[in-house]
Sequence to fold (830 residues):
Amino acid sequence: MDSNRILKIGLFGFGCVGQGLYDILAREKNLPFQIEKICVKDPAKVRPLPAEEFSFNPEEVLADDQLDLLVEAISDATEAYGIVTAALRKGRRVVTANKKLVAYHLPELLELQEQFGGVLLYEAAVAGGIPIIRTVEEYFSNEPLERVHGILNGSSNYILSQIFQKQKPYADALKEAQDKGFAELDPWLDVAGADSRHKLCILTAHAFGRTLAPQEVAFFGIDSLGNRDLEFARQNGSTIKLVASVHLTPEGEIVPLVLPSLVGDADDLKMVEQEFNGVVVQGGYSGPQLFKGKGAGGHPTGAAVLSDVISISNGYRYGYKKLQQRQAEPALALDFQIEVYLRTSDPNLLESLDFYRQRIIESAADSDSVVGMVTLESLLRNQDKIREAGAFILALSSDFASPKNVKKYEAVELS
Amino acid sequence: MDSNRILKIGLFGFGCVGQGLYDILAREKNLPFQIEKICVKDPAKVRPLPAEEFSFNPEEVLADDQLDLLVEAISDATEAYGIVTAALRKGRRVVTANKKLVAYHLPELLELQEQFGGVLLYEAAVAGGIPIIRTVEEYFSNEPLERVHGILNGSSNYILSQIFQKQKPYADALKEAQDKGFAELDPWLDVAGADSRHKLCILTAHAFGRTLAPQEVAFFGIDSLGNRDLEFARQNGSTIKLVASVHLTPEGEIVPLVLPSLVGDADDLKMVEQEFNGVVVQGGYSGPQLFKGKGAGGHPTGAAVLSDVISISNGYRYGYKKLQQRQAEPALALDFQIEVYLRTSDPNLLESLDFYRQRIIESAADSDSVVGMVTLESLLRNQDKIREAGAFILALSSDFASPKNVKKYEAVELS
Fold:
């Protein structure tokens, strides 16, 4: 692209991310980018800009060869899929913030880029304003990584901070997260862990060279968090964070998992509060590196999109170096064991989990909390049952990779 | 460079960093790099490799056109200057880990690259294994930054952790840092803050487009830390960290400063312990981002050098985008005021500091501790006096940029 002229952007979606990008470009007048068209869905919706700035026809925007770059920032992953794949089929340069789209379709998106010569970047899709994909892709490209884990969902982290720091009820905290624009349109994605799962799939491709289908990742959320669970955490001197993690076993298999976790004072994730995200990359030589920054909000996410816009206009594309380098696709470590707390009122659930029940914490008639070891395979197989039962499951330490290092929980008798 | 062949590296220096790089390349056999020659100074020194792997003649290595890349990893900045400038005059691709060299000579190093077409990268020179230069240079290239601050010296941070966490005496902690290979050959550079100052100068060039001469930055260290100072910190519920910081004032001037600082529980730097470094980049849109990782040690620093080696072989060079973009060189905000604690037994020193003495904390005959506001100008003018007097100076919060936010210290009467 000619670097001396203003590059024209076609923007799809004008929600939190789209408006964030628009606002930054309006303020940073020396940047050589201009949003030429904004494509939105609903002509009737009241918007902060004059109607003539909007288009309601994606086909028209996709077909406009005057546009140098396309930015996809709509929340519906199916529509986003249609737009991004159509753009890539035209060999366009595209920036997306849609993690669900990338998580579900990465192999196809890679193929389309190869076939038609387009480019897709998606830094804003993982950990908001933190440049984690770029850092893993570029800086750690040749360092063997041992683990990548962290807090990848700003909305659920905000809720947990409100609950633990300010003793707010779950429902109030959720409403606040929505009011502040941290939550997905469908907040279930945030609080049930599905959004974290999407982001973990993307990170795993860059960090371990494995394109995981979301279905391969067991995920659990905070939507069934109850007072008994809070009490258990507090009595163990810990807070609870929703942790997404993937690590390599000594056998070269991977353990991807999204799971609420006890987080003690010495844990790097302890200081990640409110809408912040935090990612720890454990390098074979560098040791652990923590990246902490805002994981949600129009400006942080808009800044991440802008960084991709600038990179893509400079000819940057992800090299997917770990995918290129790997000799064989790492398998899932299905027999990996993790120590968890589980609260459920359903005795059948406990049975189907093949749970080595180390200690019964509580066995009142209406509730049953146990702590014990469970395999990744059992979590994958039983995750729907656990969700349907309204059970709450919690890792006893965010250090999933080293169960032997788990600080022994106190024997807590809940009343 | 031909990407299908093994690239030959000429390595200068075989201390902690050089051996770290050597060891990583020996383990990662699939990397297309080979250390062909190692140039060291002292032929008599016992080394862990056979004598024939070494050269003792830098001229010979510099003249060897068979070498694709040069890595400079010696501790003497004057010798490093000779080697790196000679290499750049030959248009070579050079990676250095020498922060003092880069801090003192950046304008000349930029000119030499422009004139002779060579390239110089130096990620390992700042914050060890954390990819902070690359991230500021690439990811934040078009975002206006408000502040960059953090803990940039692993050795002094290790010492402070040992003192605060394990109640070790200063001298024992320093010896440990040296034994573990975290300290500079001359540990004064670490503990007096000079090394942090070098790194701050480099960061300022990339973050604010201003090549600072080290002489423009007031620096204070932990070498005169006494028991009374520790008591003051503990009574304020804080620990002490050696903080390097540069921020932009509302008038567009910069405040660069290296100063021990009280760090409370809510401070992002609180969790940066032992030999770790931590850098907070405050972006205008992204908000604060913390990068935490190992700041010293052969493997983390060697991994940073390796990352530069890979980047340089792929054609990467720093764009110095903030230097290119800036309209005028930001001036020093000499009248900027910062709230500090000062302990000195020299009454003349207090007078020359033009100190607004808010509160006398102690006024025993042999010691005098005050807390008050002091200007950047006064710190620059009096820094040598403060050092010579063996005084200890401490910011009351690591948030230098917002003195109004300083949590009011308790009135502490030391016995």
Observations:
- The radius of gyration of chain A is 22 Å.
- The longest strand of chain A covers residues 239-248.
